[in-house]
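thought: fold this chain, then report.
action: predict
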Amino acid sequence: MKVLRINTRTKSFKFEELGELAGLGGRALTSRVVNKEVPANCHPLSAENKLIFAAGVLAPTNAANSGRVSVGAKSPLTGGIKESNSGGQFAHTLPKLDLLAVILEDKPEAGSPMQEIFISADKVVFKDSAVVGMRNYAAQEKLLSAYGDKSVTALIGPAGEQCLCAATIQFSDPEGLPSRSAGRGGLGAVMGSKGVKAIILDGEANAKTVYGNEELFKEARKEWVDVLRTHPVTSQGLPGFGTAVLVNVINEAGALPTKNFRMGKFDGAEKISGETLAANIEKRGGKTKHGCHTGCVIQCSQVYHGKDGKYLTTGFEYETIWGFGANLLIDNLDDIAQMDRTCDEIGMDTIEMANTMAMAMEGGVLAWGDSKGVLAELDKVGSKDPLGRIYGNGTSYTAKAFGVDRIPVVKNQALPAYDPRAVKGVGVTYATTPMGADHTAGYGVCQNVLKVGGDVDGHKNEGNIELSKNLQIATAAVDSLGLCLFVAFAILDDARGVPCMAKLITGLTGKEMSVDEMMGIGVNCLKDELDFNKRAGFTDEDDQLPRFFREELLAPHNVGWGYSTEELQAAKV
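observation:
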């Protein structure tokens, strides 16, 4: 397979052999390119930054849940390295074009028309975009009409066109809807700075995968499916209720951040729970089981309809429901679903925007619990309204504009849906991951709350630094293979899981891959990321939670945050 480099200024391109990138994929590939080729002190929206789309090592195969795509660049939100991960059809389609990665380089002259870039097996075509200014669902419909229903897309909405720091890149799902997001870190702004509205992959391409040991791969693939289909979380909990199954679980654990991280329990949790979501789907139509990409056997996504019985959104995740729900004291699930749809339409990270709306409430612009007000404010992003420009640049930016000092960010990125005082394993991850506050970088919720893969008390300091470090390494490896993070639930409990992953790689390449070598991919990935951030100006002082977490105890369990910055360094490779 090859790497496609596209110069967005000259509209030239070249196909390259993998060379030194051979053996890498997904996050390991994006972080290696960023670390080696992007000046650490560059402006994220400058010509010096690069935007990398990479399929995982296992993307050329039909291994279950191997269709995640990694997008990498220097983040305009954090100022550090960023890998943003998404579902959709993009990752599985790249290898069918004999590609492992696409790299956007340079930057067009000011005033140049935004481009659509069509990529097929033997050519790259640039076209002045006909969907500039359009929201994502309408733009996607027009793109499919122009390029064919089987086309696979990555596109930005109005927020990305305006290069706002909370802008996403939306990927088309198996139904062709732009519902999957590379959400965190503002990489949609980087795509906008490159003058690219959409990348369209030829869905008719079908390059065949050559296996080094196909029989071994088939054997491993069968075992891999069994690992995922026999674990209660990946075979029952997530397919039945989606990630929203966590609302009641985390609330009962006293770890559901409520009213901008003031409390750990929300009285309205039941109204926005996975059980309520599933009941609404049962009444209105839609789907409780839905895969974000072809080949998913977990099926944790879902299709959610409004009260009118018509499609409203899909990929309606726990983090979104928490952020626009408990975080803002909103218990209207349908309004939250509309917020999710609005973010997908404009191209905005739901975690960042939910925390941004909390800053608007802290600043007196909105009342706590005002769901209709939130919908109105979100609608301003991507428009000519100056407030929309403020909101679209995220939590910290909005807090400064409104004079708020209770700002839940690490490295300028907003915290997700677990209070770090009650779930210290993920709290350590928030503080120390190179990505900024990111639950997916080392998901300590498994051991702290769900008791999957072990039992580490999330209220106590002991054991959680080591837990986070090990999870960060394993997660970087999983991201680099292109696997869904949720395979972790199964592989943490099933001794067959991790060796099976290594066996899948061995079957694909024909070269023996040990478990230690596979985890080494994760270690080296993290080293690339930490090296870049150090050169970008980050210090140990950036590896800490905001002061209010260190000063306030969290009800109902009255737990605090007691780690020093020095102690937290042990979580890094």
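thought: worth noting. DSSP finds 23 helices and 17 strands in the chain.
final: tokens above.
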